[in-house]
Write a structure and sequence with these properties.
- This protein has 10 helices and 15 strands.
- The protein has helices spanning 60-67, 81-89, 107-119, 136-148, 162-171, 188-192, 198-212, 225-233, 272-279, 302-319, and strands spanning 14-16, 33-36, 43-46, 49-51, 72-75, 99-103, 125-129, 153-159, 175-178, 215-219, 238-241, 255-258, 261-267, 292-296, 333-335.
- The structure holds guanosine-5'-monophosphate (5GP).
- Guanosine-5'-monophosphate (5GP) binds at residues 52, 54, 131, 158, 179, 183-186, 188, 219-222, 240-244, 268-271, 289-290.
Length: 345
């Protein structure tokens, strides 16, 4: 047994120090980024915020709403091939750089991925998603997908340490998804004792990825626009959000009425709710590692999007970054023991 002594940080352990700046207004800040991906060589530009591939968040309706802001939606893996075909038939070509097709690693997942990609040859992103990205079989799967789709941009995750980021990039991933345990409906840390505070995971994994020309997504744990800004400040190339996009018209999940208030069901993808819905229950050998919650209904996602983008733009002006690209270079984190003043919350 070994103990690492340096303290790892989550979003709530830091604030960003303001810096002298010549920017006049947050309206001047450019949030679009341009990336050329390591293996696919695909040139992408957009606002690098992604809706999580959960069936209560990563919906076709969410993709359409976010695409209006050049943001991305990782479409959850439970749509049928027919649903994909129908949706793509009525969508414009401009949607393709704004969506990711998600897949697991089973043979059935691979077959379904093949059917979706052959129905939609313009798709750009494949997101290979497992709860634990440390298994050798997962790395092999990433290599298989890379061999099958040399021109697609491949996202693989989740992991939280630099050496595994490198391994996945070398296996064929362009982008590695980072986060084990920080999610709003995740119970992995409680059930297993495994995890890594998200900000430190991002800082360390970004460093590893950028050294090889790869990219990372910070996935999970953002509860407010400030956390999104801290993720970018820590070096994340993309930020993925679940809970912050839950509860809207575009989110999946049943609407429930409780004492005159409306709520939407939101649940983890390995919660009992998701398992019962998609695979007929939680298998006997495993525990559910996700919660089911009801979040207050929040109307269209548009307002939330504006709130997030406005927050990140404002962060950039506080540190003098004219573009999101400069934010991490201009970020100094200070360790703190306080965040917001909660008198009136
Ligand atoms: P949030 O933005 O809600 O904090 O985190 C979203 C992320 O939580 C997702 O992108 C995914 O990585 C993770 N997640 C979603 N469902 C589950 C689950 O059932 N269990 C665990 N451990 N993580 C989940």
């Amino acid at each position: 047994m070994r103990i690492e002594q340096d303290l790892k940080l989550g979003f709530s352990d830091v604030l960003i120090r303001p810096k002298r700046s010549t920017l006049k207004s947050r309206a001047e800040v450019k949030l679009e980024r341009n990336y050329k991906f390591l293996h696919s060589n695909h040139q992408w530009s957009g606002v690098p915020i992604i809706a999580a591939n959960m069936d209560t968040v990563g919906t076709f309706a969410m993709a359409e709403a976010l695409a209006r802001h050049n943001m991305v939606c990782a479409i959850h893996k439970h749509y049928s091939v027919a649903e994909w075909k129908n949706w793509l038939k009525q969508s414009d070509e401009s949607i393709y750089p704004r969506i990711m097709v998600s897949t697991g690693t089973s043979d059935d997942d691979m077959k379904k991925l093949q059917s979706i990609v052959s129905a939609a040859p313009l798709l750009k992103f494949i997101c290979i998603d497992v709860a634990n990205g440390y298994a050798e079989a997962f790395v092999d799967f990433v290599t298989r997908v890379r061999e099958s789709y040399p021109l697609m941009t491949i996202i693989a995750g989740n992991v939280v340490t630099g050496e595994m980021v490198e391994e996945l990039l070398l296996a064929g991933a362009d982008v590695v998804k980072v986060g084990i345990g920080p999610g709003s409906v995740c119970t992995t840390r409680v059930k297993t004792g495994v995890g890594y505070p998200q900000l430190s995971a991002v800082i360390e994994c970004a460093d590893a990825a950028h050294g090889l020309g790869g990219r990372i997504i910070s996935d999970g744990g953002c509860v407010c626009p400030g956390d999104v800004a801290k993720s970018f400040g820590g070096g994340a190339d993309f930020v993925m959000l679940g809970g912050m996009f839950a509860g809207h018209d575009e989110s999946g999940g049943q609407l429930v009425d409780r004492d005159g208030q409306q709520y939407k069901l939101f649940y983890g993808m390995s919660s009992t709710t998701a398992m019962s819905k998609h695979v007929g229950g939680v298998a006997e050998y495993r525990a559910s590692e996700g919660k089911t919650v009801e979040v207050p209904y929040r109307g269209p996602v548009e307002e939330t999007v504006r709130d997030i983008l406005g927050g990140v733009r404002s962060t950039c002006t506080y540190v003098g970054a004219a573009e999101l690209r400069e934010l991490s270079k201009r970020t100094t984190f200070i360790r703190v023991k306080e965040q917001e003043n909660r008198t009136f919350t």
